[in-house]
Amino acid sequence: MAKLTKAQREWRPGMPKKRRSTKVMFASTVLLLESFVVLFATLTVFGLRRDEFPPVLIFAVGITLSLVYAVTCAVLTRPWGVGLGWILQIVLVLTGILEPAMFLVGGLFAVAWWYGIRTGIRIDREAAQREREQAAWEAAHPEGQSN
Fold this sequence. Notes:
The chain is mainly alpha-helical. It is 71% helix and 0% strand. Helix 2 packs antiparallel against helix 5. The longest helix has 40 residues. The relative contact order is 0.13.
């Protein structure tokens, strides 16, 4: 049998499901897309610049960077996770030094990152407000009481 996560071990019937952060979902989507872009950019740099740089170096840096983007999704819930995401946005833009088209691609992804973080924070704030209002309404109108 597979090992249960902490949330699965602590779950009891009737417990409400913990709401996932929209900000984290948006940010994870952008980072995973960037991971694929970095992988394809690695192939592009290999094809265009393999005479200038050793192929092993190109692939080692590219695959490592791609994995860093993917693994960063796991730490987005930590206080420093979004900051690491911003650093990775700068790194993606700076890959334009090796392949100039990446200045544009990195810039567009940085805008997508900014928009995802900003919109995710707003949606999370609105959802928390709705949950508070729902809890207040349910406290004011207990079940079984007829109006």
